[in-house]
Amino acid sequence: MSTNNYSQLNEQERCAIALALQQGMSLRAISRALDRSPSTISRECKRNGGANAYVCRFAQQRCDRRRRNARPKPKLQREGELFKSVHAYLLQWWSPQQIACELRRLHPENKSLHVSHETIYTCIYAQPRGELKKELLACLRMGRATRRPRSGGKDRREDASEMLSIHVRPPEIEDRQLPGHWEGDLIKGQANASAIGTLVERTTRLVLLVKLPHPHPATAAHVLQAFTDKLNAIAKPMRGSLTYDRGREMARHQELSQNTGMKVYFCDPHSPWQRGSNENTNGLLRQYFPKGTDLSGYSQEQLDAVADQLNGRPRMTLGHRKPIEVYAEHLARLALQPDCVH
Fold first, then answer.
1. CB 84 within 8 A of CB 99
2. What distance in Å separates the CA atoms of residue 56 and residue 255, rounded to the nearest whole number?
3. Model confidence at 157: pLDDT above 50
4. Could you tell me the CATH superfamily of domain 164-340?
5. pTM (2 decimals)?
């Protein structure tokens, strides 16, 4: 018997069955002519035949409808509870990967409430054009209409003098073995007329945001004063070092080291990946402060609220724990008070 006996009948075969039945051929004769099992022909006539006669066009329609109805429904249906949960997390600017891990943590035994991050991405990009798709895309970190890798640009900022290279940084900082080592940068606002300082602790990924004076926030004097105040608010054992890029706003880095007791290391030119934690955080912050936004109107209290929200989101690199929890554990080990974060 041919292996074709077990495959799905096609439209041409259904037309042949209809013609053979009109000519009075038996089901076995039709099966021999089509090289099909007699049970296959019999089942086809019973399932897809009409009340009076077998018509190939109607038989094909019934078969197509049955196959559509037999398909499992998508896990993220717009009317389903799972989609509503995912939608709520997206509105809080959680990433699909964070959402997938959180759902597994909250419902470890209920697999119907589990969904992969790829399924979430597929659901977002498969949405028809409309307000819902715009809203979901706006919740993603980059907000692009298609998924594509981030392209790099040329770093045109000037060097500071007498810098400590990142290559002389102790290995325990590079390995993230001990907390208290930070990465720093600025995110710029509209026409570079406003800016916010960002600090990320390398081990715990804790985020601190620094309000800079307006106007001319990126001057070396303003950055020195603002970063000095923010870093000195951190418990002293958590002030180990700061790794920065070669921006001219850090021209007074030696004074910053004297004021805070922290060594300042500088990355190589055009090498933002050497401050990977900070670069990733800046991407997250663009959800709160889109490019082209005037950043001068945000108070330090508002910036602290944004930092608290980021620090309360689970991170895959921390085993899906929250930065504030990991940071608090390190403070507890050092017998310090955790209220010195901001």
1. no
2. 86
3. no
4. Ribonuclease H-like superfamily/Ribonuclease H (3.30.420.10)
5. 0.57
